[in-house]
Predict the structure.
Amino acid sequence: MPAEELPGSKAASVTAVTLSTGAVACGVCCVLPFALPATVLASTGTLLAWFVSMHLWVTVLAFLSVAGAWGWIAWQSRHTRRRPAASTLVMMAGSTVLLTVAVLWPLIEKSLISVLRA
């Protein structure tokens, strides 16, 4: 049997637990909107810097992939004597355009930024 409890001690402990839980919840709700964007921006900056350092070899890999895909489509067309589907040609044209932008990006980046700043 527990030691003699003071009257109202159970109510005081329940109130303390409830208020401390409320304080933690309010702290999270108030601090999180300020801390989360800063954390996300810091992480995004690091991630973007990592992608920038990979630009050259990712572009080479993309060039090989697109060239290989065009070669595969040409081989399949000759082998089956059928034209590729229109959706395939549209997707490959889009891939080629995006690859061209990626290859030319070092040349167009400065002028694009100056246009966007104006």
About this structure: The chain has a mean pLDDT of 83.
